[in-house]
Design goal:
By secondary structure, this protein is an alpha/beta fold. It has helices at 2-10, 28-43, 46-51, 61-75, 91-101, 207-218, 273-287, 292-303, 306-333, 362-371, 405-427, and strands at 17-18, 84-87, 103-104, 134-139, 158-160, 164-168, 173-177, 189-195, 224-227, 250-255, 267-270, 340-343, 350-355, 374-375, 377-378, 396-400. It is built from eleven helices and 16 strands. Bound molecules: pyridoxal-5'-phosphate. Residues 22, 89-91, 145, 147, 195, 199, 227, 229, 255, 257, 262, 267 line the site of pyridoxal-5'-phosphate.
């Protein structure tokens, strides 16, 4: 990312098609929704209450009520307001969980002095809580969101599981699936996290896969955080059918960032009261609460149903049509006999391309693509916690769907030309 920012800043007269962005596009209908909600807030008596007051750590009560009513009605749930926590962006939920449930547990306290003449000596200092055992943050399907990489204060606590690859060679498509023979969730697991739909791949784990992971974790009372930053009901960036799953040890985590409010920092966690309380305590200590202006406008957009509508009718079709352009251009421009595989586009705002046996690393290819004015993200950044050597980690690219149709088409053609040349140079 640092290199991308520096490249764009340096400019040096070169025009780039930037397919690296994680920022959502500002769609006019979405911006208008937030303007309208803001105008309503400004015109009403609530403004001062919202902006000039501290609030509860759990969140702005009208927003909690709006989420509650929406989810109970939409999914037939029986949530109470104790099942909901509003956070400053969803990234913070993973940070709270990773550090509340994962990392080093404190060693057991030494037994109290039994009243002898000499006081028992305290154990030697072992570096904060490091004397305890390590509770891991398990990422069951690698690659996954790069933001999980730094989520724990104890970097070695984040461990990811290598997937199996479901390849359709004739169609040049593939899909990652969790490898349950490798996935280990036990008493050393603090929590489990995965994104669904997935950034960077657009993968959507099936309902059965989610339930299987949750069941494995439930046996050890381990919370499972399902990162639904791209999921329904907002922003609904799923291009395939998927059902959000609730209950037990599952914490359904949402973000309003991809629904047009990344700057307002709103995340929503829905789960068991005991888990929510722990996350809330962490939040109180860390930042007290999420800013209230964003929460107040989100309340209006959710309660009126406008956010769910705009998600399905504007946000989803926008990115889905961009994915179709990536797909059709690659199909046209990529040589049929090369081992290129596009991940099934099941959601999110990215396409993920695997170039099997790529004759250079993903990082080198990224540098080569810059020379023809195309910026993508090297795929190796998206395997946090996967420490083993795996050639595949260096054979993928993430392509953002945030550019214009023409830009995407041009960039995919340049990419195809480049890839063809690279593989030819090895053959000759
Ligand atoms: C999968 C995933 N989870 C979480 C986040 C963080 O989102 P937020 O803005 O809600 O903190 C992102 C942001 O891009 C993301 O892609």
């Amino acid at each position: 990312m640092k290199d991308i920012i520096e490249t764009l800043r340096a400019g040096s007269g070169q025009e780039f098609i930037n397919l690296s962005a994680g920022n959502p596009v500002i769609l006019p209908e979405v911006e208008q929704l937030w303007r309208d909600c803001t105008a309503e807030l400004l015109a009403g008596p609530e403004y001062g209450e919202v902006v000039c007051r501290y609030g509860s750590s759990q969140g702005y009560q009208p927003l909690i009520d709006a989420v509650l009513a929406d989810f109970n009605q939409r999914y037939g749930l029986n949530l109470t307001d104790r099942n909901i926590l509003i956070t400053p962006g969803s990234q913070s939920i993973y940070f709270y969980a990773a550090n509340a449930f994962g990392g080093y547990t404190a060693p057991p306290p030494s037994p109290p002095d039994q009243g002898g003449a000499t006081a028992t000596q305290s154990p030697p200092y072992q570096g904060g809580a490091r004397g305890g055992s390590l509770k891991k943050i398990v990422l069951p399907l690698s690659p996954d969101y790069t933001g999980y990489g730094g989520v724990s204060l104890i970097p070695e606590a984040v461990v990811a599981c290598k997937p199996t690859l479901d390849i359709d060679a004739g169609a040049h498509r593939f899909k990652y699936r969790p490898d349950f023979s490798q996935l280990s969730i036990d008493q050393t697991t603090g929590c489990v996290i995965f994104s669904r739909p997935c950034n960077p791949t657009g993968n959507v784990l099936t309902d059965d896969e989610v339930k299987k992971i949750a069941d494995l974790a439930a046996a050890f009372d381990v919370p499972v955080l399902v990162d639904s930053a791209y999921g329904p009901p907002f922003p609904s960036l799923n291009f395939t059918e998927m059902t959000p799953i609730f209950g037990g040890n599952i914490v359904h985590c949402m973000s309003l960032s991809k629904a047009g409010l990344p700057g307002e920092r709103i995340g929503i966690a829905i789960g068991d009261e005991k888990i929510i309380q722990i996350l809330e305590s962490f939040q109180t200590n860390m930042c007290i609460h999420s800013p209230r202006y964003g929460q107040a406008i989100a309340t209006r957009a959710i309660a009126s149903g406008a956010l769910a509508d705009i998600s399905i009718n504007v946000i989803r079709p926008y990115y889905q049509s961009k994915f179709a352009i990536v797909e059709s251009t690659l199909e046209q421009a990529m040589p049929k006999d090369l081992p290129w595989f596009l991940h099934r586009g099941e959601g999110a705002i990215f396409a993920w391309l695997w170039l099997k046996d790529l004759p250079m690393t993903d990082w080198e290819l990224y540098q080569e693509l810059k020379k023809v004015g195309v910026i993508v993200v090297p795929g190796s950044s998206f395997f946090p916690g996967l420490r083993e050597d795996w050639q595949h980690k260096h054979e993928c690219l993430r392509i953002s769907l945030t550019a214009t149709n023409d830009e995407i088409e041009t960039a995919m053609k340049r990419l195809a030309q480049m890839v063809e040349k690279l593989y030819q140079s090895v053959d000759s």
